[in-house]
Structure formats: C-alpha cells, structure tokens
Design a protein that fits this description.
alpha+beta; Jelly Rolls; 4-stranded antiparallel beta sheet; 12 helices; globular; binds 2-oxoglutaric acid; binds fe (ii) ion
Length: 377
C-alpha cells in the first residue's frame, strides 16, 4: 500500500465516524469486470472495492499462471480426474449432501477423494443424477451452496480452476427482507416460494463466473452460488483493517442472539455471562476473549513490521509483494478503533482480563500512541 492510499483509507473511515461502511454507501447496479492485470494495482483494488465493500470479477488473465489451472484440467476444460486421483486419491475429504437440508446447511460425511471421484464420474454418466443424491465436496465445490454471508464477515475471493458458476449477491442489510417469521434466512434464494419476500428488496446482483475468473466477495454480502457445470474452485477468506469493524459488529450480534436464547436463566445462574461466552464459542467458533487474542496477534505482527520496516526506501511497501508499513499503520489504526470499542463493551468488562498479556488497556494505549506517531509516516 502506498502513502496516498493509506491517507485515502483513513479519511474514508474518519468520514464514517464509527458507522459500518455497508450501511452508508449506495449499492452498485452492476458488478465491475477487471480485464487487465497490468493496468490494475493493489491500490486500485483497495480504493475501488475493499474500502467501498463492493464485489468485482477479475478476468482469467489474473490466474493464467496458476499450476492448478494447468494440472487439474483436461485440454477440453473438464476436471482431470486421472491427475486428481493420482495426486490426491487417498486424501479424506468432507462431502455434503445437497439434497438434504439440516438447519441452514447440509449434512456432511467424510470419504477418500477416490470414492468421491468415482461418485462424480458416475453422476456425470447418469446424466447428472444419482440415487445417492447430489454430493458436494467442500472446497472443491460440485453443486449449489445455500444462501449465506462468509465467516465472521470476512472478504473472500473464489477462482474457478475449471467450470462455471452463477452467483447471486445481496448487499448487506438486504437479507433482512428475506427472513421468515422465525428470523431464519432462506435456504435457497431462487426458490419460487420466496418471490413474495423478494419484492421487498432489490433484485440480487447476478454474475456468471467463467473458467479462470476470480470473484471478489465483499464483507457481509449474502450470496448463493450455483455450479453450472463440473467445476473446481479455490476460495480464500481474509480480514483486514477495512472489514475488521464488521467482524466485531457481527460478534456482538452473535452474543446478543445467544443471550436472547438463554435469557430465562439469567437471574438463576451466577455465571450466566460466562456461559453465554461458552455457548457463543461453540456456535460461532470464537468468543470475546479469543477475539481479543486475534486482535493482539495481528497488532503485534503489525507493530513488529513497523519497527523493522520504517527505514528510508521502505515507506511505500514492497511493491505489492509484502504488506508494507503503510498497510501496517492503517491496520493498526483500525485495530485501535475496534479495540477501544471492545474494551468498553460491558460483556468484555466482565471477563477477567488481568490474566491477559498484555492487558487490553495497555495494548490499546500502545496502539493509540503508535497511531499518533505514524500519522506523518
Ligand atoms: O462456490 C461455492 O459453491 C460457494 C462458495 C462460497 O460462497 C463460500 O465458500 O463461502
Ligand atoms: Fe461464501
């Protein structure tokens, strides 16, 4: 990240005055397609998509050099089962049954990839049907995934190594109009039974993703994905200074939901707040203590980077290869803002933070001092 981009980003967040970005920006009416890697920089991505939190699609030119696009795919563009079998046949993979709904997801089983590939070949031979139903290999997706937003409101990218997918995107907040009378989100946003509720929100943004193309999924955008043909894709999720506040907002919502569920025991259980954190951990995968630990680990890495990389000639970052001091300084300013809110949260105050190292208030003070010191970096 260069200095100008960081200044742009920091003034963007100052302008939001603590509001979540997704609540204030208008929704685009289309998804941008980015054609040429040579004329598109990380700063362009940061300013055009990460900060405003809007989706985009990168052309297959961006993934042309990927080994998986050469090795996993036959010359006719189909999954290369022989190659996958030879190289990964023994790997045990999680497989979901898409025909069976279990809450808002699908039941999963584990099997060696070779068994999954036998199933897949048979499925193709039987004209895309099987008495075993439509089985979905997690991470190497084979069929549609239910409507969801990504874990912890992370960003993600998804590349089709081969095959095509259809994406439906709803900007943050629009999913509220799709909830049923119990507050649950629909399993399938394309279901005809949903047409009524879909009248209350704008139509989703639709994208057809071709082989080699990469879709950027912004934070908190609900989406549903359909495989249009035999498809292998690689996905990656991440959080940075741009969506960290969204993650914290999401975790507070999760805790409130737990507290609502078990509110009737509040007065009879002396350690009710502690139990809410335990339940939150098991339902959401993380609790407030772990979130503090997450902030701490990232903050310490950024502090280290700033301490070692702020010599002359280092200030603009490593021309796209590493994080660079400007991004580190930006992330620290965002962590400081979020940590200030964490420390002041009544449920965080109930934790025994005297055993945390460093103490949250001390880390916050250190970060705030650094924010002041790096303002002119
Ligand atoms: O491609 C798919 O089937 C779903 C990808 C996705 O949205 C995810 O893994 O979060
Ligand atoms: Fe997703």
């Amino acid at each position: 990240m260069d200095r100008e981009t960081r200044m742009f980003a920091e003034s963007h967040f100052r302008g939001l005055r603590g509001c979540l970005p997704c609540r204030v920006l208008p929704t685009p009416d289309h998804v941008d397609f980015i054609e040429k890697p040579d004329s598109f920089s990380y700063a362009d991505f940061f300013k055009g998509y990460l900060l405003p939190n809007v989706p985009c699609v990168f052309s297959s030119a961006f993934t042309e050099g990927w080994g998986s696009r050469r090795h996993w795919v036959t010359p006719s563009g189909k999954p290369d089962f022989d190659y996958l079998l030879q190289n990964y046949g023994d790997v045990v993979v999680p497989v979901a049954n898409c025909g069976v709904q279990e809450y808002n997801s699908n039941p999963k089983e584990h099997m060696p990839l070779r068994d999954y590939i036998s199933y897949w070949k048979e499925f193709i031979q039987q004209d895309y049907s099987s008495s075993r139903g439509c089985l979905y290999l997690k991470d190497w997706h084979l069929c549609r995934s239910p409507f969801h937003a990504d874990i912890f409101r992370s960003f993600s990218w998804s590349v089709n190594i081969c095959g095509r997918k259809k994406w439906f995107f709803f900007p943050p907040g629009q999913e509220e109009a799709l909830r049923d009378c119990y507050g649950s989100l629909p399993y399938d946003v394309t279901a005809s039974t949903l047409l009524d509720s879909r009248q209350h929100c704008s139509p989703p943004l639709e994208v057809t993703q071709e082989a080699g193309e990469m879709v950027f999924v912004p934070s908190g955008w609900h989406h549903q994905v359909h495989n249009l043909e035999d498809t292998i894709s690689i996905n990656h999720n991440w959080v940075n200074g741009c969506n960290l506040a969204n993650m914290w907002h999401f975790l507070q919502q999760e805790l409130r939901a737990v507290q609502r569920e078990v509110s009737e025991w509040r007065d009879t259980m002396p350690d009710w707040h502690h139990h809410c954190q335990v339940i939150m951990k098991s339902c959401s995968g993380i609790n407030f203590e772990e979130f503090y630990h997450f902030l701490k680990v990232i903050a310490e890495r950024r502090l280290l980077l700033l301490a070692t990389e702020t010599g002359p000639g280092e200030r603009e970052g490593n021309k796209g290869t590493g994080l660079g001091p400007q991004q580190a300084a930006f992330d620290i300013s965002r962590i400081a803002e979020v940590l200030a809110s964490v420390v002041a949260h009544p449920d965080f105050e109930k934790l025994d933070t005297s055993v945390f190292s460093p103490r949250p208030e001390d880390l916050l003070q250190q970060l705030e001092e650094l924010v002041a010191a790096t303002a002119s970096l």
